């Protein structure tokens, strides 16, 4: 989501690293002891408090300490002090943005092509820390589908819980690469998640840096199991479980033998979160592969 297409092209020409920025490690808000590179990811059980402030340690990538398929209404209606939620708005570069921030701080941001809301141009993934109206992220990664490139970034901003969220994204490898976001909270996030309610078949397409855009189908079962297939011959399986609160689900995917991800040795699995829009039953799922160098974005409508 760079300022201009020219800035994106310049970033590629300057050799923007596809391994992330300095000290950037998704899956944790700090680089784990013994880490040998920025692609290290800590897949731990979420130990963050649900009382407001997100923990700065043990933040799992879409993990949850609850494995049940439903949550009580009190989880959704209790006071929220951090920046969790579903946020919709725009950037100062004429792009529509949709941000989903989980209660443990893991987030993704979908953004459209400039001036074209119908096309998803990329997704930003990372971990946030938010409290007292301030939000930061030091390990953001922008997977840009327009240039098929990966750019590291940091994010600082302000918020009012369940009301508004503003942010400034600074691209660390692009001189002058700064983008601002202005969003408001979507009340669709306040719905209590339930896997049985969202179970069914979803058809649409999945996008990644490696495979670009491919027609894809997801099937979610009431038991929480997930199966899927792409028209390139890839089949995969996984699980869907509700987060502690909010209309948000953990998603884990294991790639099958027909998938280029596993056949090339790039990745065997992918983990992240998903949201189902109650207004139109559209599923938006973003999972980060275990090599932390690509995502699988799926957008599909329930059949």
TrEMBL record:
Residues 25-76 are annotated as: Disordered. Keywords: Signal. It comes from the Bacteria. Residues 1-18 form the signal peptide. Residues 25-37, 47-76 have a biased composition (Low complexity). This is Lipoprotein.
């Amino acid at each position: 989501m760079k300022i201009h297409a020219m800035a994106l092209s310049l970033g590629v020409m300057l050799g923007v690293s596809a391994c992330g920025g300095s000290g950037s490690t998704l899956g944790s808000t700090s680089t784990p002891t013994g880490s040998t590179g920025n692609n290290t990811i800590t897949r731990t059980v979420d130990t963050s408090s649900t009382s407001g402030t997100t923990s700065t340690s043990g933040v799992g990538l879409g993990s949850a300490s609850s494995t049940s398929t439903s949550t009580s209404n009190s989880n959704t209606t209790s006071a929220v002090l951090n920046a969790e939620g579903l946020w919709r708005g725009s950037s100062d570069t004429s792009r529509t943005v949709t941000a989903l921030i989980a209660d443990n701080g893991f987030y993704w941001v979908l953004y459209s092509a400039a001036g074209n809301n119908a096309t998803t141009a990329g997704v930003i993934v990372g971990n946030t820390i938010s409290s007292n109206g301030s939000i930061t992220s030091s390990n953001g990664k922008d997977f840009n589908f327009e240039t098929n490139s990966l750019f590291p970034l940091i994010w600082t901003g302000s918020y009012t819980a369940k009301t508004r969220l503003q942010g400034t994204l600074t691209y660390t490898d692009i001189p002058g690469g700064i983008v601002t976001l202005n969003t408001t909270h979507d009340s669709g996030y306040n719905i209590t998640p339930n896997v049985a309610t969202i179970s069914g078949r979803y058809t649409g397409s999945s996008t990644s840096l490696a495979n670009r855009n491919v027609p894809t189908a997801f099937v979610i079962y009431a038991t929480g199991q997930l199966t899927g297939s792409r028209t390139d011959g890839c089949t995969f399986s996984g699980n869907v479980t509700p987060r502690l609160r909010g209309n948000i689900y953990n998603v884990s995917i294991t790639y099958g033998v027909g998938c280029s991800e596993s056949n090339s040795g790039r990745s065997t699995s992918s983990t992240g979160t998903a949201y189902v829009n109650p207004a139109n039953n559209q599923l938006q799922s973003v999972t980060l592969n275990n090599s932390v160098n690509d995502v699988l974005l799926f957008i599909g409508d329930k059949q």
